[in-house]
Specification:
The complex is a heterodimer. By secondary structure, chain A is mainly α. Chain A contains 14 helices and two strands; from the N terminus they run ααββαααααααααααα. Chain A has two domains: 51 residues, no CATH class; 238 residues, MetI-like fold (Orthogonal Bundle), CATH 1.10.3720. Chain A starts with a helix and ends with a helix. Chain B is mostly helical. In chain B, α4 packs across α8, α4 packs across α11 and α13 runs antiparallel to α14. Chain B is globular, with a radius of gyration of 26 Å. Classes of the chains: A mainly alpha, B mainly alpha. At the A-B interface, α1, α2, α4, α5 and α6 of A face α1, α2, α3, α4 and α5 of B. Chain B: Keywords: Cell membrane, Membrane, Transmembrane, Transmembrane helix, Transport.
Chain lengths: 306, 302
Amino acid sequence: MTSTSIVRLAQRATPARRNRRDWRGWAFVAPFMLVFLAMIIAPVVYAIGLSLFREQLFGGTVFVGLNNYLAVFQDAKFWQALGRVTLFLVVQVPIMLALSLTAALALDSARLHGAAFFRIAIFLPYAVPGVVAALIWGFIYGDQFGLTAGINDLLGAHVLEPFSAQAILGSIGNIVTWEFMGYNMLIFYAALRVVPSDIYEAAEIDGAGAMRTVFSIKIPALRGAIVIATIFSIIGSFQLFNEPNLLKILSPNVITSYFTPNMYAYNLSFAGQQFNYAATVAIVMGVITAVIAYVVQLRGSRQESI
Amino acid sequence: MAVTALARSPRAQLRAARKRDPRQRRSVVLTIVMALFVLYSVVPLLWLIINATKSQPDLYSTFGLWFGKDFTLFQNIVDTLTYRDGIFVKWFGNTLLYVVVGAGGATLLATVAGYGLAKFTFPGKRAVFAVILGAIAVPGTALAVPTFLMFSQVGLTNTPWAIILPSLISPFGLYLIWTYTIDAVPTELLEAARMDGSGEFRTFFTISLRLLAPGVVTVLLFAIVATWNNYFLPLIMLSDPTWYPLTVGLSQWSAQATGVAAQPIYNLVITGSLITIIPIVAVFLLLQRYWQSGLAAGSVKQ
């Protein structure tokens, strides 16, 4: 009795305290914000600064305004890299998310034998470092002792050529799908679990079958999760680096130094010492990624409100 | 379709329907489909385990998904750990250091700040939100090059700090704790603690943290995965192999197999890869209960 009245009293006291400019929250937020400023904001500002200068063979570093940006927009290598990751994104992300969605719906259907085993087994690849995933698949793809070589021997012809120019994007897409399918499945599954069960009961009373329930209740309930997963997958695709950079060792002629925008920025910096230009590429990619992520989110939430 | 007894009440009908409901029955077809998913997910890992037991010549000459003529797993492990004066053990130790300090620190900072954002109103809170939300969209790798240049000017490259400091920030972790706190920690409880004269930090560490445990474990696990699997940042920051984490070390070993003075040590790369993933897989399996509930709670409010 008394405790509830104290609580009520305290609640009433809160607005008054708010007016007195309450700085206590800062004690909690300040350490994060300090490191955040040093590790996120400072590099961004520094990169913007770098992108406005150019190092010249003679005469040191000079201010060039937006010239680096103009150069990036006219750079065929940059466009080729951007086109490649865009193609990758348009094909790989829908396939991966469709697979994840199928697996999540199957888990949620309560019609599986050993659902807990399936859940953890499919998630397992997420825990494998991208480097190790690329190494394993690189070996499997290889014609020295890979499974691919075994299959080709069996068929008596070179049917599978994962490192050919036509197949390489698919080969990388397969690795990325393998790594993140289970993670996205869990995100979807977690979102499905919070759908109130009385909605299903109502649907059942109305005579809705399993498929109808999936398309009319479950998938609409997943919209938020799908938008989030899409955004993270887009960011991941634009940042593609680990897998192609490791497969480059096995397939140096097909994977160029500007295979993805990120590899391009990396090689500009550490092979070419063109730090100013590399920073410009990084900023342009950052802006493109942020804009696309924002548009996806906007579209996703607009459809939700209809 | 299953509803036949129209005269009964809806609830009774439902109960009757439930018994014969196809939703409740185990489906063989669906189980087979899921088995294919599992096969896809597990076969590469099986390949890794099987091939970690082979000698270098067997790798070339025997079928990938079955054991070789010699079972050399233990020899491979010994070779991996002792190759070049035990550099692999050094890499393993480095990775542990980066994970404990980096992921641990990131979790602590994100938890404290997420809690502060959820439970306090303070001047500038909106600005903090806007900046952090904006930062989630900034690709991590876009920051890597400028961070490298900054660090090289203050002499931090080629030191453990070059890996640890950037790992300390987890905007996603902060977001997860923030949403988790709103539901998990009742404001009334905090007010009651204040009435009893408990300081804000004492309340946080003695009361709130316990309520936040599943959320914190989730953030910690994902921070551990991110740090354990980190490749791009250490690749840029470190040139001295004695500071390499496992990921960069392994990729270096793998690259050693091609080129002019090629010295393939594929058996060591494979065994090293297996040793690299065992701890992280073990952590995930052991803490399953915590992170799955934390993930579920985080997904409620997207």
